[in-house]
Amino acid sequence: MAKKPENLSFEDSLSELEKIVTDLEHGDIALDDALKQFERGIKLVRNSQSKLENAQQKVAVLMQDEGVDTLKPYDVEGE
């Protein structure tokens, strides 16, 4: 039985999401299974987003403690 999304690490959630997307893109699954996979994916995304928001809040608190006022967006080269 698959773990609940809230019990997975962020990295495990991403890995499972990648697998779900790959399976759905191939289209070789029955409709009922595809819907179950899609629903699982939505739960994983929501939980991952929550974990990211919590991490961002922790970083903001830590930066305030250090006297840094704001976070700057991460600039990825080539984007």
UniProtKB/TrEMBL annotation:
Domain of life: Bacteria
Protein localization: Cytoplasm
Enzyme Commission code: 3.1.11.6
Gene3D superfamilies given in the database record: Exonuclease VII, small subunit (1.10.287.1040)
Protein biosynthesis among keywords: no
Keyword Zinc: no
Enzymatic reactions: Exonucleolytic cleavage in either 5'- to 3'- or 3'- to 5'-direction to yield nucleoside 5'-phosphates
Principal cellular location given in the protein's record: cytoplasm
Gene Ontology MF term list: exodeoxyribonuclease VII activity
InterPro entries documented for this protein: Exonuc_VII_S (IPR003761), Exonuc_VII_ssu_sf (IPR037004)
TM region(s), chain numbering: none
EC supergroup of this enzyme: hydrolase
UniProt keyword annotations, A-Z: Cytoplasm, Exonuclease, Hydrolase, Nuclease
Role: Bidirectionally degrades single-stranded DNA into large acid-insoluble oligonucleotides, which are then degraded further into small acid-soluble oligonucleotides.
Subunit structure, as described in the record: Heterooligomer composed of large and small subunits.
UniProt similarity note: Belongs to the XseB family.
Name of the protein in its database record: Exodeoxyribonuclease 7 small subunit
Gene transcribed to yield this protein: xseB
